[in-house]
Amino acid sequence: MSEFLPKAYFEGKIVDFKDANISIATHALHYGTAAFGGMRATVDPKTKQVLLFRLDDHCKRLSSSAKLLGYSIKADFIKKKILEFVKANPCKDNYYIRPLVYVSDLGIAPRLHNVKYDFLIYGLPMGDYLDKGGIKVCFSSWVRGEDRSLPLRGKIAGTYVTSALSKTEAHERGFDEAILLNSAGKIAEASAMNLFIVRGNKLITPSVNQDILEGITRDSVIKMARDFNYEIIERPVDKSELLIADEAFLSGTAAQVTPIKKVEGYNLPENNPITQKLSEEFSKIFTDPKSKYLSWITKL
User: Fold this and answer.
1) Which string of b and e fits 128-159 if b means at least 16 CB within 10 Å?
2) At residue 117, does pLDDT exceed 90?
3) What's the DSSP call for residue 268?
4) Looking at the DSSP assignment, which residues form a beta bridge with residue 1?
5) Which of 19, 40, 155, 244 has the maximum number of C-beta atoms within 10 A of its C-beta?
6) What is the mean pLDDT of the chain?
7) CATH number of 135-284: 1.10.510.10, 3.80.10.10, 3.20.10.10, 3.40.50.300?
8) Average pLDDT estimate for 147-158
9) What is the pLDDT of residue 133?
10) In the beta sheet, which residues pair with residue 296?
11) What's the whole-number mean pLDDT along residues 189-202?
12) Structure confidence at residue 92 (pLDDT)
């Protein structure tokens, strides 16, 4: 398979990916005035059906993100076009879907009034984004933005400059991923994933008022953990708590459930039963026809 799926949704129709091009003067390219989504498409090896995880929730979040940029696009419309996109790209392997709402105007004024918007979708093959055996993380020197400065409840393209800076900083220091603190000095999230720690059989995760993205996988993990009768605590998390955690993991569309094995120079315990239990349960959603979470799956 080529680097990208052969078909894209662009300017209101399905086209060849190579023909889905924008002008170098596009507003979103210069100012980050775009909002995006992201979801995995898992191909069932037995039935060859495409399984989309929490499609409705992803579409609702993108619709809300677009609203933060002053653009009204219905979740049902996004869903309809994603389904068209999937049907136009028959695949044998798992892939990632990227829908994007963007200011398509050609101009240099950084504004969101009197501008044109558009919507596109493309995809690319995706396996494991991070090592499922465990990763090494460091604390970033970059600080997660504040909601009073940036609309962090949406996946706004411009906010991900901080993510890119922190991810590269971590890579250059020999780590797999970065952990960003917020302006209050509490843990927010990783470069593009939410964080959980385990202490004494309790799952602790930064609350939504800690300038985190309200992750769909994060919400899924919380629901699964509660079904396992684990206590979930959503609150501010100190930097030192991660260093002494019994277990820690990241969650996200790309990361799924990925254990953390080392933080800076601190090794976390090798035994991480809760993380593994949640990871296995999450994987079963796509493989076990008896999974209790099949309502999260859209089959094509």
Assistant:
1) ebbeeebbbbbbbebbbbeeeebbbbbbbbbb
2) yes
3) P
4) none
5) 155
6) 95
7) 3.20.10.10
8) 94
9) 85
10) none
11) 96
12) 86
Q: Is the pLDDT of residue 2 over 60?
A: no
CA dist., res. 188 & res. 150, Å (int): 15
**Structural domain boundaries in the chain:** 7-125, 135-284
Give first-to-last CA distance, the chain, whole Å. Answer: 20
For the segment 203-216, the average pLDDT, to the nearest whole number, is 96
The DSSP letter of residue 156 is B
Stretch 1-24: mean pLDDT, rounded? 92
Percent of the chain that is helix, strand, coil (3-state, to 5) = 30, 30, 40
Burial class (CB in 10 A: 0-12, 13-18, 19+), 242: buried
β-bridge mates for residue 250, sequence order: 195, 258
**Sequence-ordered alpha helix ranges (H) in 73-125:** 75-88
Contact predicate 211/268, CB 8 Å: no
Tokens of 127: 């396996």
Contact between residue 117 and residue 71 where contact means Cβ atoms under 8 Å apart: yes
Structural tokens at position 265 = 């120079």
Q: Residue 253, class by beta-carbon neighbours within 10 Å (0-12 exposed, 13-18 middle, 19+ buried)?
A: buried
| Cα maximum dimension of the chain | 56
Bridge partners, 26 (sequence order)? 106
CATH fold of 7-125 reads D-amino Acid Aminotransferase; Chain A, domain 1 (3.30.470)
Tokens 């019994």 belong to which residue?
Answer: 246
Separation of alpha carbons 141 and 267, rounded Å: 21
Above pLDDT 90, what percent of the chain?
Answer: 90
pLDDT for residue 188: 98
Q: Name the pLDDT band for 250 (thresholds 50, 70, 90).
A: very high
Contact predicate 32/116, CB 8 Å = no
